[in-house]
Structure formats: C-alpha cells, structure tokens
Design goal:
GO terms for molecular function: hydrolase activity. With about 280 residues, the protein is an alpha/beta fold. Helix content is about 45%, strand content about 15%. The protein is built from eleven helices and eight strands. The protein is globular and about 50 Å long.
C-alpha cells in the first residue's frame, strides 16, 4: 500500500461525497484559484484510498489543474456491499463503470484519468468500456506503477495469503501479521484505520483480479488515447522492464521517477506532479 507523507488535507482541499448515477464516492477535491486548465481524476490501488494522492493535490492545483482523488467502492470512506459472495460488485467491469460515472458527475470539458497500481487496471477498464461505447470523456490516461495484466508471481502469493487469511483470522490479526512493528505515528494510525474500514468483499474480489487479470495492452493501444506510463525506479508488483515494454507497445510517454518505488505519488510527489503536468501540457491540456 502507499504510505502518504501526511494525512491532513492541504488548504483549499475539500472533502465531500461526489454524487453519481452509481452512488456517492468519498473524494478529496483541489481546485486552482483560476479557471482550471483541465481536471485530473485520481484512482487509487489495492488497499489504498484517496489519501494516497494527498501530496499531489496542492502541486497539481498550483499548476492550474483541478485534482479529484476518489475512494473506490468498498474502499475506506466509500461503502459497498459486504457479503462475501458480492464478487460482481467489485469486479473490474463494475469498478470501471464507477469511474465512468465519476467522470460524468465531474462534468468537465477536459479530463485526465490517473490510475495507481490496481487503480490503473480499473482506469484502463474504464477507457476500454468508453471506447466500446464510442464516447470517451478522457483526454489521456496515466498508468502509475500499473502493468499490463496480473501482478508478479511473488506478489500473487502474497495477495493469495492475505485473501486466505482474512476470512479466517479477521482484519486485526492480518494487520498484526503484516505489520508486527507497531507504528503509533499519525500516518501509522491512519493506515491501520483505513485497513479496518475496507470492505472484506472488496479486498477478496480485487485480490482475485490482481492474480488473474489478462494482458489487455493491445486493446488499450487500439483506442488511440494518449497514455503516460509512470513508475519509480523499482517495483515489486510489476517489474520496471515489464513497464518499459508495455510503454513501447502502447507508443506511450514513459517516465521513471528517481528515488521512488511502487508509489511515486507518495514517495516523490513534487517530481511526480511535475512530470504529469508536463505530459498534459504537451497534449495542449
């Protein structure tokens, strides 16, 4: 999971529930003082939340972009079905439809979609569904530390162990197993609180998707949407050489953020915001 450098939203950031045709989603919304050049919709990864992008919100707003980070269905402050059999509610198709509903609710003329880790798979799904309907609300897609399909073998085993232990041991015991050293800092308390707030059905269903999602790069390339593949120098979920090859297959803009690993949004937020803005500006938005 991403570890945000701080938790309290910066000045000018609003926390509220974004009402959509598919329900209400908790968001952090940062708007520039002047008319925004465009809007960025930020979709977090597995076990993550809108706070994973908290350090990007101020820099993006200062650069003239509205930035809206969202909790997906069943994540942290956005509720969702709790039944273990509610797999379809958290399947990639349903979560992609949620992103499309969020995009429509934002009602903006220019929209850049950004997905971190599993959020990249969801965002890709939203782009593909919009393309199939021959109407896309997006001006670009940024895949941040997100690969072409299922996660790497070691991470598949880790996610399998997590999903196997959760129904048996419960969330508190699983947390203690994965975090044996107690962290009583403000951020540490938040991470534990967020983990306990996640809907179990969502964790189980998304864990399955991460272990089985196929490579859909060719389908994404066929949409013609401008893509930015952004990552740190090292990544355990999708190895960096794999991300390099994916960018080549997409004809995508490629950025490697020095000093960052799986979460450049949290580990090097100022550099990450700057390269995202450069990509969007190069598109004229």
């Amino acid at each position: 999971m991403s570890r945000p450098p701080f938790i309290a939203p910066p000045g000018g950031v609003r926390a509220y529930r974004l009402e959509t045709a598919r329900g209400a989603f908790a968001v952090l919304d940062a708007a520039p003082e002047r008319e925004p050049r465009a809007t960025a919709l930020l979709v977090p990864g597995y076990t993550g939340s809108k706070e994973d992008f908290i350090a990007l919100l101020g820099p993006l707003a200062e650069a003239g972009y509205r930035a809206v980070a969202v909790d997906g269905r069943g994540q942290y402050e956005t509720p969702g079905p709790r039944e273990r059999h509610a797999r379809s509610a958290y399947g990639l198709a349903a979560l992609a439809e949620d992103v499309l509903a969020q995009a429509r609710a934002l009602g903006t003329g220019g929209l850049h979609l950004v997905g971190h880790s599993f959020g990249g798979l969801v965002s890709r799904g939203a782009v593909l569904r919009a393309a199939a309907a021959r109407h896309t609300p997006f001006d670009s897609l940024t895949l941040m530390s997100s690969g072409p399909g299922r996660i790497a073998r070691l991470q598949r085993w880790r996610v399998r162990a997590l999903c196997g232990g959760l129904p048996v041991l419960g969330p508190k015991a699983v947390w203690r197993m994965w975090h044996p050293a107690e962290d009583r800092s403000e951020v540490g308390d938040f991470l534990r609180r967020r983990w306990l707030a996640h809907t179990h059905a969502q964790l189980l269903a998304v864990g399955r998707t991460l272990r089985h999602e196929p490579d859909r790069v060719a389908h994404l390339a066929a949409t013609g949407l401008p893509v930015h593949v952004l990552s740190g120098e090292r990544d355990g979920a999708w190895p960096v050489p794999l991300l390099d090859r994916m960018a080549g297959r997409l004809g995508a803009h490629r950025t490697v953020v020095k000093g960052a690993e799986h979460s450049p949004n949290a580990e090097q937020p100022l550099v990450t915001a700057a390269v995202m803005v450069d990509f969007w500006a190069g598109l004229g938005r």
